[in-house]
Design a protein that fits this description.
The complex is a heterodimer. By secondary structure, chain A is mostly helical. Chain A contains 7 helices and 1 strand, in the order H-H-H-H-H-E-H-H. The chains are: A mainly alpha, B mainly alpha.
Chain lengths: 166, 100
């Protein structure tokens, strides 16, 4: 075990506990704030993996923009507070399905990767390397994503516009 | 140096929690939040394999997934707000107009 691993385990524990609170919190605003903790700890995990640019994009886009969108959504929909209002009646089945998926994934990971066999030696991941890769080799998917964002922008405006204001 | 399975276990835990949230929550905004948890799990895997294999492709696609997630949240919240405006509720089990 190295210092990197201890730091990663700490971040992973914080992120997992906060994620559990996201899906169990009784108050929707608390759920959104716990989501911030989870997203920030995932960003910290990216930093530990030396994926520096992805980490800052994670903080900027997720913590900065998406959580704000969620808070606006909660504010505009006046969600009720309390377990019965936020959870449906099939909580037990959901727990079973989630645990089955977790067990399956852990079995597959154990099966495919030996504990000491595959190690991550962080190297590249700065903005320069990632940017060069995006704008040379992956420029076509990049254009597709920008087109998708334009479509999403127009779609969101069309969906949320009130017709009686025209 | 970080062992790869450690990172994959974290991502598996986040994914399973996200699945639970999608299945158990009935508030539309909370379901969208759980979907974000699952997308984050996918991104962790992409970055981890990118670093383990020494290729930048995984990180580039993690960035694309973040962009697609942003678009998805924008459209999803627009739909949720539209449903709230029309039905006065965002409980997804009461929105059954398209169910036969």
């Amino acid at each position: 075990m190295t210092g990197h691993e201890y730091a990663f385990i700490l971040l992973a524990l914080i992120g997992t506990v906060a994620a559990l609170r996201v899906v169990t919190a009784r108050n929707v605003v608390h759920a959104a704030l716990y989501l911030v903790v989870t997203l920030a700890s995932v960003g910290g995990a990216y930093l530990l993996l030396a994926a520096e640019f992805v980490a800052w994009v994670q903080i900027l886009i997720y913590v900065g923009a998406i959580v704000i969108l969620f808070l606006f959504g909660l504010m505009l929909t006046k969600a009720p507070i309390g377990r019965e209002a936020l959870d449906n009646q099939r909580r037990g089945a959901a727990i079973v399905v989630a645990l089955a998926i977790l067990a399956g994934l852990i079995f597959l990971i154990q099966d495919a990767f030996s504990w000491d066999g595959s190690k991550i030696e962080p190297e590249t991941g700065g903005a320069a390397a990632v940017g060069e890769s995006i704008f040379s080799r992956y420029v076509l998917p990049f254009e597709a994503v920008s087109f998708l964002l334009l479509g999403a922008l127009i779609g969101a405006i069309v969906l949320s516009r009130r017709d009686d204001l025209t | 140096m970080i062992r790869l399975p450690l990172v994959l276990f974290f991502s598996a835990a986040l994914f399973a929690i996200g699945v639970y949230g999608v299945l158990a929550r009935r508030n539309g905004v909370l379901v969208l939040m759980s979907i974000e948890l699952m997308l984050n799990a996918v991104n962790i895997n992409l970055v981890a394999f990118s670093q383990a294999l020494g290729s930048l492709a995984g990180q580039v696609f993690a960035l694309f997934v973040i962009a697609v997630a942003a678009a998805e949240v924008g459209i999803g919240l627009a739909i949720v707000i539209l449903i709230y405006r029309n039905r006065e509720t965002i409980n997804i089990d009461e929105v059954n107009l398209l169910k036969w």
